[in-house]
Design brief:
6 strands; NAD(P)_OxRdtase_dom_sf; alpha/beta; 125 residues; two-stranded antiparallel ribbon; TIM Barrel
């Protein structure tokens, strides 16, 4: 029998109406094109109380993230999408005034989400 220890994860509260967990589950480490692997990994992370997820269109995981969110809502693992904080990264190739909004809209469409709280610009080190 295994036991798990629950950790308290800190929230940061910017000067707005939302809070953001300081530890998140990144979706960039997936090295497969199998959407089910992405989806199951996100679902397991939610079961482990992760509530902050990081994605970018370049990762190819936005759709699986959205599907996982729909599934955990159906399963009752979370009661509302509002329990989750999703960070999108705008990739360098889309970092031009004419491309920003279309790229973010595409990310929202790919993930089937309707609200974007935080978008970061990806950069090289």
């Amino acid at each position: 029998m295994s036991s798990t220890t629950q950790l308290a994860i800190l929230n940061v509260v910017p000067q707005s109406s939302f809070s953001m967990l300081v530890i998140g589950f990144g979706t960039a480490a997936f090295e497969t094109d199998e959407g089910d692997v992405h989806k199951l990994a996100v679902m397991e992370a939610i079961k482990l109380d992760y509530r902050h997820f990081d994605t970018a269109s370049i990762y190819g995981s936005e759709q699986a993230l959205g599907e996982a969110i729909v599934e955990v809502l159906k399963l009752g693992l979370i009661s509302s999408r509002d329990e989750l904080f999703i960070t999108f990264k705008l990739w360098l190739s889309d970092n031009h005034p004419d491309l920003v909004l279309p790229a973010l809209c595409k990310s929202l469409h790919n993930s089937s989400l309707v609200l974007l709280l935080l978008a970061l610009t990806a950069r090289y080190p």
